[in-house]
């Protein structure tokens, strides 16, 4: 019994050892016969896809757009040249012309003084004539005649003074325009130099703007302008004055634009936009959304060269409107990137496709 058990155990052990040996030999043969493991391959670099469109430069008029206020051509305050009570005066809103009588002050005792001055002049004239007759007859010296002449000239001066004072009681408009407000009403007393009324001349109107020192050298007197009034309306104008020195605080130059207002339809005091065409340059029209900033903070556009490489070209904006901007700095003909995924690096190779037609129809493409 024990011998049989020993034989069975020996047989089982031999079978197990044989199986293990076979497995080890099989695994070892695979490890020894296979070649070295292949090196890992770097993934292929993905070439980004962009859309681009050709753009050709065209002539564009550069413009300077400025905002300012519309002022009257002139404002004059009528002041009394003599004292008196206001007996007559025109009402506010009356249109007047220079030299027109628009008010009257009381003459008071001036008429009596005028009569006295005339009498004194007549008496002085007689005394002088008598003195000259006596001088010719040798009865008085010539110095006596000179004294009478001095008295005659004094009488004439007194008469001219009272006549001028009476004339100054009539108030006359100093300029053409419209009476803006009356300072001295009927019955009020005004002294010499007292304010009576204000006249505003609104023809022409003057749009006053302040231009930055960088743009000032492009302006000249006589340049045509367009003036758009806030709230509606537009008029043509021309530059009549450019300040010869900049404002010390703002470093800007005062510019006055003259606007015809012969019909009197426009009041002064309006806010306005003044558009000044300066010169003509070749520029590309693009969407403002295509503008990019480089590492130096410069604005520019991404373009594609003949080898499908990205280039960043700095540009200057010469005109801007709601439907696009016009820029300089690009070649006369350039292929501008219109659609891309993020910022691309200069020199980067891209897969260029034409800009889709539906995207072009939105008006955002370069033209």
Question: Would you mind describing this structure in some detail?
Answer:
This protein is an alpha+beta fold. The chain folds into 5 domains: 1-30; 49-59 and 281-360, conserved putative lor/sdh protein from methanococcus maripaludis s2 fold; 66-73 and 201-280, Efflux pump adaptor protein, beta barrel domain (Elongation Factor Tu (Ef-tu), domain 3, Beta Barrel); 76-104 and 172-200, OB fold (Dihydrolipoamide Acetyltransferase, E2P); 107-168, Orthogonal Bundle (Helix Hairpins), CATH 1.10.287. Helix content is 25%, strand content 38%. The protein is built from 4 helices and 22 strands. It has helices at 2-33, 110-137, 142-167, 357-360, and strands spanning 49-56, 58-71, 74-79, 84-89, 95-96, 101-105, 170-172, 177-182, 189-190, 195-201, 205-212, 224-229, 234-242, 252-259, 271-286, 292-293, 299-304, 310-314, 316-321, 324-328, 333-339, 351-354. Strands 2-11-14-13-12-15 form a 6-stranded antiparallel barrel. It has a 4-stranded antiparallel sheet with strand order 3-10-8-5, with no helix packed on it. Strand 19 (316-321) and strand 20 form a beta hairpin. Helix 2 (110-137) runs antiparallel to helix 3. It starts with a helix and ends in a 7-residue tail after the last helix. Pfam families: Beta-barrel_RND_2 (PF25954). Residues 114-172 form a coiled coil. It comes from Aquisalimonas asiatica.
